[in-house]
Design goal:
The N and C termini lie far apart (89 Å). This protein has a three-stranded antiparallel β-sheet with strand order 1-2-3, covered by helices on one side. The protein is α+β, with helices and mostly antiparallel strands.
Length: 141
């Protein structure tokens, strides 16, 4: 073990390389604010929504693939913004990314949409049956 490794200079060197790869201190802090994580990895691809997918096999299995969401969402992103073709690669169902092996596209398959629960566009079913109980309204005095 060298003296630099013993003193932790290799960790400092890796940290400085990550800051450089993210575009400097300001962009690194912004990326840290958005994702709560600073990682370095190889850009595997980008989907049609602007999400970028990275991989670094030096990290632990299960943590070696990640997505950086489109910056237009700021911190208001969720997992439903990942299309199905990238979901499989991201969760290790396949080692072939959609760039390497494009997914099969049939006419009956709908386009990917994000989850709209909790928004005005959320699906709200309505009933066509008569309610079994009636709401009570207090008598006016």
């Amino acid at each position: 073990m060298s003296l630099g490794t013993f003193l932790g200079l290799d960790k400092l060197q890796k940290f400085m390389r990550m800051i450089k790869n993210h575009g400097g201190i300001k962009n690194s802090l912004y990326h840290l604010y958005l994702t709560d994580d600073l990682k370095e990895g190889k850009l595997v691809g980008e989907d049609k929504f602007g999400n970028k997918y990275y991989e670094n096999p030096q990290y632990f299995y299960g943590r070696s693939r990640w997505v950086v969401y489109n910056p237009k969402h700021n911190v208001d992103y969720d997992g439903s913004m990942v299309p199905a073709e990238w979901f499989g690669w991201l969760h290790y169902k396949t080692d072939m990314s959609p760039i390497d092996k494009p997914p099969v596209k049939y006419d009956w398959m709908p386009e990917h949409t994000q989850n709209t629960s909790g928004t005005k566009e959320a699906y709200m079913p309505f009933t066509t049956t008569k309610p079994k109980i009636e709401a009570w309204t207090p008598p006016k005095k």
